[in-house]
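Researcher: Please translate sequence to structure tokens.
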Amino acid sequence: MTKPRRPYGRRKHVTVVSLLLLVLAIALGPTPSSAAASDWWNPTARPAPDAQINVTGEPFTGTDSAGEVRGFVDAHNHLFSNEAFGGRLICGKVFSPQGVADALKDCPEHYPDGTLAIFDYITHGGDGRHDPVGWPTFKDWPAYDSMTHQANYYAWLERAWRGGQRVLVNDLVTNGVICSVYPFKDRSCDEMTSIRLQAKLTYQLQDYVDAMYGGPGKGWFRIVTDTAQARQVIKAGKLAVILGVETSEPFGCKQILDIPQCSKADIDKGLDELYDLGVRSMFLCHKLDNALCGVRFDEGGLGTAINVGQFLSTGTFWKTEKCKGPQHDNPIGTAPSAAEADLPAGTEVPTYDADAQCNVRGLTDLGEYAVKGMMQRKMMLEIDHMSVKATGQALDLFEAADYPGVLSSHSWMDLNWTERVYSLGGFVAQYMHGSEGFVAEAARTDALREKYGVGYGFGTDFNGVGDHPGPRGANTSNPVKYPFKSVDGGSVIDKQTTGSRTFDYNTDGGAHVGMIPDWIEDIRQVGGQDVVNDLFRGAESYLDTWGATEQHQAGVNLAKGRTATASSSEWNPFTSYQPGRAADGDDGTRWASDWSDDQSWQVDLGATHLVSRVTLDWERAYGKSYRIELSTDGTNWTTAWSTTSGDGGLDTAKFTGTPARYVRVHGLARGTDWGYSLYEVGVHSA
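Model: Translation complete:
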């Protein structure tokens, strides 16, 4: 079936709307289950009362005929963000030993009618007033457009698992700026303190669920730290939970007036701590430029408000330049914003040229160090929210190392990067748009999924203060019809009931995480079975990327320490620019040629190898047009790879494995008025 292509509205993301704040200055006595002992998916005891699951039938187990796991992957969720931002921004808990009534209650300042629900009315519009009562009536929340109420209650998550989800990435999240400006808080704004707490609570949730099933290791919620564990968990029909991190100043790496407030030692210590906590993926920057990288802007008035927050936090506004390729950051816009009232007298938000949409800030030296540190620890990098300049530089590093660990988990990557991500072996998921918008975006990249044989994911961003799918209406021509069968066909899914409220996707939309199966059924109604099939292969594709990351081995640089020669070398009385400087393993030294176009650098590998990849780390004097030439005897040369559009930085030339003892970089046209200059050349075997 041909998939329709329809435009969709760009969503508001967590800190897009968050920084608008700157505009304003098993307890309860578990009851025995009636389930038979063979019904392993039902707990032997569950707190009473509690939310219903409303799914019947055994969850699918095992692998398919190809030996692959099955199931959906939510690649971007924030289970415990109620503990972030000072602890009072997201109201309600994922679970409570005191039961559902304690877990699902509003923040105290929201009583009696939501008058002080400041963040709610900023993000939701109107006056923010709502019925704060949660259990058992839930008159006004959870709701698809209520961004400050708990959407990840554990029983709702259980319903998502029963409906076919098999992978969940729990991104530990916070933002020190939001915390500092939000008037209600009951804890420190230190980002790493919040990250540690959220990790601890994720493990406590696992214990909480285990207790319902008879003890450690028996529950459906399983935290995994490697793909072997994940595959075992999914094969058993349970939910594999991976920890990630999304925060604006990881390891304290903010910048003030472009001066980094962290060191390489801070980065190493921070990465080690996160890895020990079980974190396997993370963002390096988010919403605000930090000491590691520049961000992808937000648009219009929201972008202006965040730009104000950027200035108040760092002392610098965003700076833009013309984009060098098809990728671009979002236009900031010049929409007036009341946030400007918070700026010092005489300070104004800059205006930006419409044709200059790219952040000048890319990956800093510390950011490059952090990326390499993640590679050493076999961690996956989330590139959403990075400026296109930073993203391109990170992908350069990954391509040079043939490293697959790259993720785009919720539609904040320019889609023009998609094939580059897939060619590395990376994974892409789309934000949880409404079904029509989701199908349209999925159609744009469908051919690439077909080409690379990969599945698809979604990132719900629940508890991330972002929009969620609204209802299409009960009168639509193709509504979700209850009950319906799960994608695997083994379970029956009916309307979800919590307390005295029953949720119907047709009228309630994506009100909470338990509505994921209903949303997927709505996607099937709108876009047909093909896109749902791609989603059902998502768990396998995510694990493919993660597994390849775990198994990655740093390639041997065949050129390191070998004899190098060149057509010329620039003379300098204070330092050496001789050819060997580009093969000494030190990225602080370099070879530089004379200032003319036809120049070459070559290395003798000492023996013939099957060569398939050459990496070139250019200094500012780069080659715009050049060839990679190979020879077995140093006399007869063949061209293995060439370009006429070099742009400097880190280049990777990949080609069919070819026997060679000698490798030559033959410059044909310079990119600057200087000569050619290379920090390091890497030569790698097939």
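Researcher: Any highlights?
Model: The chain has 18 helices and 27 strands.
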